[in-house]
Design brief:
The chain is an alpha/beta fold. It contains eleven helices and eight strands.
């Protein structure tokens, strides 16, 4: 389902993909940077034509990411290169990118540029032989709740809007674009590779890939259990505070009855909100993100058994 901006697909230049892959190979855990490109007038798609990494801390010559980005975009504009920020990219390991930091960063980008996207490059899955590059955006429903609640996604608000973890992100179709000269070069390289046949793709071993996914899934299940325990503690604290409030009111009522029998004036009314400060609402954002991450791991693992069984039996 496309968002309200009208962007239905993302067109990524081949140069952008090569830069992201090179950056992810050099710093696998910290490969992030802004995307540059343009949005056509019809707004049907988003074009990503360039990118560069975020600033790295190097000794005493430290500059902020904002200063670095402004300087880079100014230099690119001087050489007549697309300098409009249309999102950002991030490298991940087996799709483990959905964190609160990711959500906050994407919210900032979409607030500035409604068409902005996040490109997620999975180096681990790409090493298995299939390129894994996906484009994501936050859904309009999630953004509206985020703005109204200032980032605090309480259970009452989520229940009111029938909000689930599937309403956080939307994946947009992605198209890789290469120049005609690049396609001609690839054809020449492909012709040379045909002389050296390789049977690595017939390897039936998928246990390493499955093991990594299952381990990450187990970690997410543990996190989900911890979030459930936190919510149970929060409910017990609310019930305990409510009980203490009722006990205080009953005790005060009994004291007023005694004072009335003695001909004394009742006790003055007190601000109960000052005596029993309301607890901060429980945020369900971490729970939603963990649940969404578990769903992604399940989708990644589910095709593996069928692919493994299908390899020994090629079509006649």
């Amino acid at each position: 389902m496309a968002s309200g901006t009208g962007v239905k697909q993302v067109v990524v230049d081949g140069l952008v993909l090569l830069k992201i892959m090179k950056h992810a190979r050099s710093v696998p855990q910290e490969a992030r940077g802004p995307l540059l490109g343009m949005v056509p007038k019809d707004g049907s798609h988003l074009e990503v034509s360039n990118c560069f990494p975020f600033a790295q801390d190097e000794g005493d010559d430290q500059i902020t990411d904002e200063q670095f980005q402004v300087t880079m975009m100014r230099n690119l504009r001087e050489v007549n290169v697309d300098h409009l920020q249309v999102g950002w990219y991030q490298a991940s390991n087996l799709g483990s990118f959905l964190t609160e930091e990711f959500i906050a960063t994407q919210v900032d980008y979409q607030m500035q540029t409604p068409e902005a996207v996040a490109l997620i490059y999975d180096a681990t899955r790409t090493a298995q032989g299939a390129l894994c590059l996906k484009a994501y955006r936050l859904r309009d429903k999630f953004l509206s709740i985020w703005q109204e609640e200032d980032g605090d996604l309480t259970l009452d608000r989520l229940s009111k809007d029938n909000f689930t973890f599937e309403d956080i992100l939307e994946e947009l179709p992605l198209v890789l674009h290469s120049s005609h000269l690049s396609k001609a070069l690839l054809e020449d390289l492909r012709a040379g590779l045909r002389q050296n046949e390789s049977f690595d793709h017939l390897d039936l071993s998928t246990h390493v890939y499955l093991e990594k996914n299952v381990r990450l899934m187990m970690d997410c299940v543990d996190k989900l259990a911890n979030e459930t325990q936190k919510y149970q503690v929060y409910q017990r604290n609310i019930a305990r505070q409510h009980q203490q409030r009722q006990q205080y009111l009953e005790k005060k009522k009994e004291e007023n009855q005694v004072r009335q029998q003695q001909g004394l004036p009742p006790l003055p009314d007190e601000d109960l909100s000052a005596l029993f400060k309301p607890l901060a609402p429980f945020s369900c954002l971490d729970t939603l993100l963990v649940a969404s991450q578990i769903s992604r791991y399940c989708k990644q693992v589910s095709p593996s058994p069928s692919q493994t069984l299908g390899r020994p039996y090629p079509a006649p």
